[in-house]
Design a protein that fits this description.
alpha+beta; Double Stranded RNA Binding Domain; DNA polymerase, domain 1; hpI Integrase, Chain A; 3 domains; three-stranded antiparallel beta sheet; 14 helices; 10 strands; globular
Length: 428
């Protein structure tokens, strides 16, 4: 015996062979797969993998007690599978089972899915028996998230993105007959008017007012290069804050979009920056650089000669363009907060100015970084008819998204044309 291993020595054709038979504890008892005994204190350990793919450990001072715990674990796992197959398990079990099968998810996506589920579903709706959940139950749950917790449609859509496939897997496993989440989100969007993306785009007048105010403000003018780049490229905020100086090609006047900086919540509950590939394969693209955008980048470079360049390293990358005074990448929440402060300050001044000049004020509605992307796409659609070109610049995964925004932008143009006809014609 050596190190708890019982060895069998054999002589075959004149040669010695050692065959390891089994592991044993300090009392000579054979240990099973997953079992071990610590040398320092003699405690027994059983290691196993749960239904979500996580490694778990059970401890005991006695081997027989440990094996009773093992039996209980096996029984619970079998009961869970049996109850799942019979439709008597909870939505929580179904989700954990679903997420454990998504081996191809990006790590930040997996973390975000778990975070959203644990925060909004697990302790409430997640405890429901999956076979008892009906369409109306899902709709009531979604409405309560909006009306009681005040969730916006995009946040609710993220929750739907993880619940719908969870139910769908249960359908394919013949656990439930139908997906109770099918069609719920579409109905809620329609009822709340959230399917009209044009409502989230700034008008040309509002866009000009915002940029002019930033440009002339001694308080906010340092934000001008970033907002010019956002309004002039339609980049997602993660793509923009992830841009590095080496991604710019001044000679060919292009911007290479091949990664994004994502500020995400980790498994330990802490948030940090990580580099990710674009949202979709279509997100890897080259964007032509407008003259105003090129100048914005050059202005930012000159400003950082005085204030200092990026010092932060994220997943081996550095040289990021848009950073704060400490050389750290701007968090999306910080940028959105800056937008809010700017349009609120502008609106307050504009109301007073318009009253003084006896005119209607040009007010800027609430908007965020994502609305800037939508605004760019709307301006683009107003001036370009080739949908494939628009899709390529925007990095849309499917043409339907591009077509929806194009149709909305075209509707606005038609209304403007009719209004112009009405004002300039003396027909009636």
């Amino acid at each position: 015996m050596s190190n708890g291993i019982c060895d069998l020595f054999l002589i075959l054709r004149g040669r010695w062979y050692i065959i390891s038979m089994s592991r044993k504890d300090s009392k000579g008892r054979v240990l099973r797969k997953g079992e071990s005994q610590r040398k320092n204190d003699g405690r027994y350990i059983y290691q196993y993998t749960d239904s979500t793919g996580k490694r778990r450990v059970v401890y005991s001072n006695d081997l027989l007690e440990l094996r009773e715990k093992e039996k209980e674990l096996v029984r619970n796992q079998l009961d869970g599978l049996e109850s799942y197959c019979s439709g008597k398990t909870t939505l929580n079990y179904a989700f954990d089972r679903y997420i454990s099968t998504k081996y191809d998810l990006k790590e930040h996506t997996r973390v975000n899915y778990k975070y959203m589920y644990n925060r909004f579903v697990r302790d409430t709706f997640g405890k429901r028996i999956i076979n008892d959940i009906k369409y109306s139950d899902v709709k009531f749950f979604y409405c309560s998230l909006m009306n009681i917790l005040g969730l916006q449609a995009n946040t609710l859509d993220n929750i739907h993105t993880i619940l719908h496939p969870t139910f769908q897997m249960a359908v394919r496993d013949n656990v439930i007959r139908n997906n109770p989440a099918s069609g719920v989100m579409a109905e809620i969007k329609k009822a709340n008017g959230k399917n009209k993306g044009i409502r989230h785009a700034l008008t040309l007048e509002q866009q000009r007012a915002f940029l002019n105010y930033v440009s002339n403000s001694p308080v906010y003018c340092h934000w001008l290069p970033l907002f010019t780049a956002l309004f002039g490229t339609g980049c997602r905020i993660g793509e923009m804050i992830g841009l590095r100086w080496e991604d710019l090609d001044y000679e060919n006047k292009t911007i290479s979009i091949n990664h994004a900086a994502i500020y995400r919540v980790m498994e330990n509950g802490k948030s940090e920056f990580h580099i990710s590939s674009p949202k979709t394969e279509a997100g890897i693209r080259t964007i032509p650089m407008m003259q105003a955008v090129e100048q914005a980048f050059k202005d930012e470079y000159e400003a950082q000669k005085e204030t200092g360049f990026n010092v932060q390293v994220v997943d081996g990358m550095s040289g990021f363009i848009f950073c704060n005074k400490d050389g750290i990448i701007h968090k999306p929440s910080v940028i959105n907060s800056a937008i809010k402060r700017i349009y609120e300050a502008y609106n307050a001044e504009e109301i007073i100015k318009a009253k003084r000049e006896s005119r209607r004020p040009v007010l800027i509605p609430h908007f965020s970084c994502h609305h800037i992307r939508h605004t760019f796409c709307t301006r683009f659609c107003e001036n370009e008819r080739n949908l494939k070109v628009i899709q390529s610049i925007m990095g849309h995964a499917n043409i339907e998204t591009t077509m929806d925004i194009y149709a909305e932008a075209t509707d606005v143009k038609k209304k403007e044309a009719i209004k112009a006809l009405e004002n300039n014609s003396d027909i009636f």
